[in-house]
Specification:
Order of helices and strands: EEHEEEHEEHHHHHHHHHH
Largest sheet: 4 strands, antiparallel
CATH architecture of the largest domain: Orthogonal Bundle
Number of domains: 3
Oligomer: single chain
């Protein structure tokens, strides 16, 4: 039987791929001598409960009311198999990143830097499997919640390290929670060597200059490492106690990397309290 085909003046849409149980339709668009293929993914939109809204602390990380307005929109259902659909939150997460961009500071700049380092250094210019831009976007969203103060993002180096301490913790615990569905681990079933990835990210965090050199004339003696051995034991604490997934704990990590530059007395006190709890473990492992 001939497959149904929709044709127009500039291209054709062939439904053969659906019969082959692929998850998209192929659209060929011709313009003179050039033909471009587009993959058209069917989308169904519907209202869907978002557990993240149950955590009031998320609200403080975004401009007034923006989180509720954005996640209150309909979500997209996209094909995940011949008879299975899944929720896609890509559009919602992109809108949330846009909301963060309305703040002053280096939130999006820090994401751009780590995306470049990830591609060029951690993934060998894209030749090796590794973290995706989606992973890094999620890290930024969590970092924005954990570090809501404007001064956290006022200086570029400090902003980058806000993302790095969250990313290192996620790699050490082998768990990167989805921002809107925290019970979903974005590192599960990825097939990635998380230990090797951790080593690369920790090396960058400890001596970032080596990964940021872009010309032979920039070569020179590297500063000493920012951290000693054994920091991975400290980073694994949230796996045993979720209460460590909090600003004070990540402030301890920032202090380890010598980029804790907050003057708020209550936050300093909370950081010191957590530090005392982890001091024994740190001294044993380091």
């Amino acid at each position: 039987m001939r497959s149904p085909t929709a044709r127009g003046g500039t291209g054709s849409l062939n439904a053969d791929s659906l019969r082959e149980e692929e998850l998209h339709l192929s659209l060929l668009v011709s313009s003179g001598w050039r033909t471009v293929r587009f993959h058209v993914v069917p989308v169904v939109r519907r209202k869907h409960r978002v557990p993240a809204l149950e955590g009031a602390q998320l609200m403080h990380a975004f401009p007034g009311g923006s989180l509720r307005r954005i996640v209150g929109q309909e979500v997209a259902l996209v094909p995940a198999g011949a008879q299975l659909w899944r929720v896609s939150t890509d559009h919602l997460l992109t809108r949330l990143l846009g909301a963060l961009g309305s703040f002053r500071g280096h939130r999006l700049d820090s994401l751009s830097i780590l995306d470049r380092v990830n591609h060029e250094s951690w993934r060998d210019s894209g030749q090796s499997p590794g973290l995706t831009y989606g992973h890094l976007k999620t890290v930024l969203l969590w970092a924005s919640v954990l570090f809501p103060a404007p001064e956290d993002w006022a200086e570029l180096q400090g902003a980058v390290y806000r993302l790095l301490v969250v990313l290192l913790c996620c790699l050490a615990t082998r768990n990167l929670p989805h921002f809107l569905y925290p019970g979903c681990n974005l590192l599960r079933d990825t097939g990635l060597d998380l230990n090797a990835l951790y080593q690369r990210v920790e090396h960058f965090a400890s001596q970032p200059e080596a990964s940021l050199r872009i010309h032979v004339t920039h070569l020179g003696r590297s500063p000493p490492p920012r951290i000693g051995n054994g920091v991975k034991a400290l980073l694994q604490l949230p796996a045993s106690n979720p209460a460590y997934w909090a600003t004070a704990y990540f402030d301890v990590l920032l202090d380890k990397f010598q980029v804790f530059n907050i003057q708020d007395k209550e936050r300093i006190s909370a950081m010191q309290s957590i530090f005392q709890k982890t001091k024994t473990l740190d001294s044993e492992e380091c």
